[in-house]
Design a protein that fits this description.
123 residues, mainly alpha, 5 helices, 60% helix
């Protein structure tokens, strides 16, 4: 850790990991870019937060939003990504790794305590 030789005026507030993760969860639910899925996955896999932590942070930022709607949006974004780049279009050597993230999203992030089909939209 570096020693400060100059005090900053006014003090600069630095975002916490929780602040950043709440913003990332918002991006995931509302934008759903592949990098958003990967970032949340990596934070959870690194043990920096749990899936429950992620959803609590998201809910704190969106107190009037329904968790079910958020789950539906995640599935919708994931399905759009899968339509744009189906597993069959990915080189065979990369398919297993490419399939692991969507499986984690469906089995761990979207479905804790719920059946997967509960999140699916009505046809």
């Amino acid at each position: 850790m570096a020693i400060r030789t100059v005090e900053l005026e006014p003090p600069i507030l630095i975002e916490t990991l929780g602040d950043n993760l709440a913003a990332k969860m918002n991006a995931l639910v509302f934008r759903g870019a592949p990098r958003d899925f990967r970032d949340v996955h990596d934070v959870v896999q690194a043990g920096l937060a749990t899936v429950s932590d992620c959803w609590c942070l998201w809910q704190a930022e969106n107190p009037s939003a329904a968790m079910t709607s958020a789950g539906v949006e995640l599935v919708r974004h994931l399905e759009a990504i899968e339509r744009r780049r189906p597993l069959e279009a990915i080189p065979e050597a990369e398919r297993e790794a490419a399939a692991a993230l969507p499986a984690w999203v469906r089995d761990e992030l979207v479905t804790p305590g719920r059946k997967r089909q509960d999140w699916r939209r009505s046809p």
